[in-house]
Design brief:
Blueprint (H helix, E strand, L loop, with lengths): L9 H11 L4 E8 L5 E4 L5 E2 L4 H14 L8 E3 L4 E2 L6 E2 L18 E3 H10 L3 H11 L1 H10 L5 E2 L7 H5 L5 E2 L1 H12 L5 H12 L16 E8 L3 E9 L6 E8 L7 H17 L9
Antiparallel strand pairs: 1-2, 1-12, 3-9, 4-7, 5-6, 8-9, 10-11, 11-12
Helix pairs in contact: 1-9, 2-4, 2-5, 3-4
Length: 286
């Protein structure tokens, strides 16, 4: 996507926010469905995808269901043993590093695929992510991304696969690529029923201190965050009652564990909103 200047000097404002908040890098991609306006600020720069990659798993899951491979109300056995993308060795996830620790009570039992999808996105469950990715398969998920014409998102492994990480095998994404991913969800790649359900899941996101925090209270956001020690991202479809939605992908990279990362993403969200609507929103942070 070609980088262009946005309304009201959005490009310059993003440069200033990066400098002010000491970000190593910022990547932003935007598509306003009200006007057709597209914007990319270093949108082709690659970042560690962190938990935004879970949206790619969600797309693959619902595509497989649309193809009749299974039903979403089917159940899966819940183990806690996975195979590393590096060498096939076994690894396990730890409850204290998972944003949805309650799912670990299901280990050794079964859980519905639909419930796991909800936990993967709304609670950012690592356990649910690895279960679902193992179920559909990494290669199948990569094929789905290609079929959906989602360039700029590289899904290579499950989460918390430290052996793969040590060998440089990571999930990576660009802002432009994640914008394409959300556009595929909102488009006609999935059946209408699956599209509605995927967006409903994204709307029920529990972590709202980034994109939603820069918006007025009447905005609703179907989104997914992603954070690791150096990365802090949020990608979403922003719905406003007075207009058509817009889609935004905001990726940031900082020194490890730097304070104020989420606030930086919220400030970028506010800058985007202000540029598109030429107004000053009140905070919508939970």
């Amino acid at each position: 996507m070609l980088s262009v200047d946005g309304p009201n000097g959005l490009h310059e404002e993003l440069e200033a926010l990066a400098l002010k908040n000491k970000a190593r890098a910022i990547g932003v991609a935007l598509h306003d469905l009200e006007t057709g306006f597209r914007f990319s600020f270093r949108g082709d720069r690659w970042f560690h995808a962190a938990s935004t990659i879970k949206v790619a798993v969600l797309l693959a899951l619902f595509r497989a269901a649309d193809e009749g491979r299974f039903r979403l109300d089917d159940s899966l056995h819940v183990p806690n043993r996975f195979f590393s993308a590096a060498d096939g060795s076994l690894f396990r996830l730890t409850q204290d590093r998972d944003a949805t620790p309650e799912l670990y009570a299901a280990i050794g039992r079964t859980a519905k695929i639909s419930s796991l999808a909800h936990a993967m996105i709304c609670g950012s469950s690592n356990l649910a992510t690895n279960l679902l990715l193992e179920f559909v398969g990494v290669e199948y998920a990569r094929t789905v991304l290609r079929d959906a014409q989602v360039d700029g998102v590289e899904l290579r492994r499950g989460v918390e696969d430290h052996g793969a990480h040590e060998q440089g095998i990571n999930n990576e994404a660009t802002a432009d690529g994640l914008l394409r991913l959300l556009s595929a969800i909102r488009g006609d790649f999935l059946t209408p029923e699956s599209k509605r359900e995927v967006i409903r899941i994204l709307l029920e996101q529990r972590f709202n201190s980034m994109i939603p925090a820069g918006l007025p209270p009447h905005a609703t956001v179907a989104h997914k965050t992603g954070e690791i020690s150096t990365a802090c991202h949020d990608i979403g479809i922003i719905y406003l009652p007075e207009r058509e939605p817009y889609i935004a992908a905001i990726l940031t990279e900082f020194d490890p564990e730097r304070e104020g990362r989420r606030e930086t993403v919220a400030a970028i969200s506010q800058a985007i909103y202000r540029s598109l609507l030429q107004t000053e929103p009140k905070s919508n942070e939970d």
